[in-house]
Amino acid sequence: MNEMPPKNIVLIGFMGSGKSSIGRELSHILNYPLVDTDHLIVKRTGHSIPEIFASEGETAFRDHESAVLQALLDEKKERQIIATGGGIIERPENRLLLRQLGYVVWLIVSPEEILRRTSRNRDRPLLNNDNPEDTVRTLLDHRIPLYKESAHEEIETDSLTFPEIATGIIESGRYFFSLL
């Protein structure tokens, strides 16, 4: 028998999908603390995400993500909003940890919207290249099945406001937890 996940809301999705912004909106509405896995990694390592990618590489960064997810699970806290990095679903063990942490919501965003939202941000190591559009499409092709495997719920966000998205997550979350 599976253990019931804690009553956390876990946000996953590609970079620029709005995980941090939606997380802040949910935190405000529900009065739950917002926990951002990227911020926890920066705090633990003392280095920014681009610095970690440059000095240690992507594999080491993914190791940090796994460690942070395991630490969050070990804390056994409830009633948190957990915003994750876009590639946290790359590892099978992370996909399992995410589902053990709570109700996992995939914020779906189109490639065009991703490029619009991330075009002015130089802190996106995976997009700092000559063809960010091709990178986004290639990464999405690879990651979509992984997001789908990880998520309890999928929400297409392109045409919705943050309050609309947050309301949808809260309502579907109530239903999810009432079924357990």
Q: What do you see in this structure?
A:
By secondary structure, this protein is an alpha/beta fold. It has one domain: Rossmann fold. Helices cover 56% and strands 11% of the residues. The chain has helices at residues 19-30, 37-45, 49-55, 58-75, 92-101, 111-118, 132-150, 162-179, and strands at 9-12, 34-36, 81-83, 103-108, 153-156. The protein has a 5-stranded parallel β-sheet with strand order 2-3-1-4-5, with helices on both faces. Helix 4 packs parallel to helix 5 (92-101), helix 5 crosses helix 7 and helix 6 packs across helix 7. It is globular and about 45 Å long. The model has no long low-confidence stretch (mean pLDDT 91).
- Encode the helix/strand succession as letters: EHEHHHEHEHHEH
Shape: globular
Portion in strands: 5-15%
Number of strands: 5
Please give the domain count. Answer: 1
Using brief descriptors, characterize the structure shown.
Rossmann fold; alpha/beta; 180 residues; 8 helices; 5 strands
